[in-house]
Amino acid sequence: MVDVTAEILLFDGFDELDAIGPYEVLANGAEAGASLEVRLVTLEDADLVTASHELRVEPDGTLGEPDLLVVPGGGWTSDDGGVRTVVDDGSVPDAVDERFAGGATVASVCTGAMILAEAGLLEGRPATTHHDALADLEESAANVVEERVVDDGDVLTAGGVTAGIDLALWLLEREFGAEVAEAVETEMEHERRGEVFG
To answer: What domains can you pick out in the chain, each with its CATH number?
Structure first.
C-alpha cells in the first residue's frame, strides 16, 4: 500500500528540469524503499504537454487529491507563456489552493512560487524562487528568503531550476528518513547545496 501520493502539475511552458528533476528523485525514492507513488499530471485532460524548451511530455492523468503537490515554474521572467499565462488564467492557482485546503502539502520549484503566491499560500510565509523573480515574490507579501530550499511545513519553495532536485531530496529525507534520501543522492550522483531554511 502506498502511504504518500505525489503529483507534479504540468502546464504548457513549464520548465523541464523543474518537473522532471523532482520526478526522478521521487521515483528513485520509491525504488529505494519510500512508500511513495509519483505521477505527472495536468489540470485538464491532455495527450501531450509542451515544456519551455519544446520537450513534449505525456502526462499520467489529471490532477487528483495528492498528499504532495509539486508545482514547477517556467516562463515567468520571459513573458512568453508558462507560469505567467497560468497565473493570468487563474485556474491552476485555484486548483492548487483547493488541494492545499484539502490537506495537501504544496511545494514549488523556481517561479512556480508565483503560482503559490497567486493561490494565496505564501502571504506572510518564508519563501523563495528563481533569483530573477525575487522582487515579484516580495510584492506578493511573501517573506522572501534567499535560500535554495525553504520548508514552512505544509508549504515548501525552492530556488531556480536545479533547486527542485534538492527540494525533492529534502522531502524524501523529511518524510522517509535520511537513509532513503542518501541512497537517491548516491544513485543520482548529486550533492545537495546549502542548508534547508525552516
So the answer is: 4-197 (3.40.50.880)
Cell of 145: 528568503
d(CA 132, CA 111): 9
Task: From 37, 60, 49, select the one nearest 85 (Cα to Cα).
Answer: 49
Catalytic residue, from 36, 43, 68, 110: name it: 110
pLDDT per residue as tens digits for the range 103-153 = 999 999 999 999 999 999 999 999 999 999 999 999 999 999 999 999 999
Alpha-carbon distances of 89 from 11, 86, 134, 138, rounded to whole Å: 12, 5, 22, 21
Active site residue 157: no
Compute the distance between CA of residue 109 and CA of residue 129 in angstroms, rounded to an integer: 7
Query: What's the predicted TM-score (pTM) here?
Result: 0.98
